[in-house]
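Q: Convert this sequence to C-alpha cells.
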Amino acid sequence: MSEIIEQKEIEKHSKYFFIACFIGVIILSVLVIRSYVVTIISSILLSYIFFPVYARLKTVVRSENVASVLTAAIVVLAITIPVVFAANALINESIVFFHKSKTLDFSKLEEKIPESFRNSIEVNEKLKEMINRFSLTIARAASDFLVALPKKILDFFVMIFIMFYMFKEGKSLVEKIKDHIPLKESHKRDVMIKFNGVVYASIYGIVLTGMVQGTVGAVGLWIFGVPSPVLWGGVMIILSMLPFVGAFLVWFPAAMYKLVTGDIANGIGLMLYGLLIVSTIDNIVRPKIVGSRGNIHPVLVLLGIVGGLELFGILGMIIGPLILAILTVFLGLYADEREKR
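A:
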C-alpha cells in the first residue's frame, strides 16, 4: 500500500516538475526570440503573399528547394529595388525640403486670413515652425534608419532564411496546427476561411490600396509642381491606410497653397486631380483587389493601425488590423455557438 502511495506521489511531483520545466522553457524561448518577433511575423506574411509564386515555380522546376530559393530571390528583388530607390529619393528630398523650409514665406497666405485671427497668432511663423518640425522629424527618422542599418540587414537575412522553410513546409505546418486546434471541424473550416479572408483584406485591401493611392497622389504633385513629390507621396501612402484621413491631408493644403500664392493654374489642376482621381481611385481599386473577401470595419482598421504602429513599428500597420479582425472571427464563432445551445 505504501509503495502505491509513494508511486502516486512520484507521479504527482513528476507532473509538477514537467509543468515547471515547460513554463521555464517557454519563458526562455520568448526571451531568445523576442528581438525577432517582428521579423518572424514579417516572414510569415511575405510567405503568405508569395506562396502562389512558389507553387507556380514548383510545378515548373519540380523541386521544393529550387522553387524556395527562386521565390526567396524574387522577394529580395521585390523588396530591395523599390526600398533602395525610395530611400535614396526620400533622403535626398528630405535634405532639400529641410533647407527650403528655412526660407519659406507664407506672407501671401497670411494676407488671405481674416485680420482678427491674423492679429491673434503669427500665422507665418507658426506654419514655418510646423514645417521645420516635420522636416526635422523626417531627417531624424532617416538618421535613425542609417544607425540601425546593420541590425536591419541581419533581420532581413533571418527573414529570408525563415521564408525559405516556410515556402517548403508552411502548408504542412498549417495542417498540423489545424489538426491540433480544439474546435469542431465545421468551426475549423470557418476559422480558416475567415482567417484567409481577413489576411487577404489586410494585406491587399489596406496596404496595396494605400500604396496605389499614395503613388498616384505623388504623380499629381510632380505634375503640378509641388516640391519633394516622393517625400509627400510616402506620407500619402501612410495616410491613405487610415480611414477617414487619407491623402486629402496632403494634396488639398498643397493645392490651396498654390492658389493663394498666385499659381492658379497648378492650384486648380491639383485640386481637380485630387478630387477626381486621388480621392476616387480608392473606391475603384479596393473592390477590385479585395472584392467581398474579409471586409474589415473602418474602426478596427483605425484602432489596429494606431495600436499596431505603437507595438510593432511600421509592420503594425498590417499586423494591428489583422489581429483585431481575427478577434472578430473568434467572437463571431463564440456567438454562433451560444445561439445553438
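Residues 98 and 135 are 5 Å apart (CA to CA).
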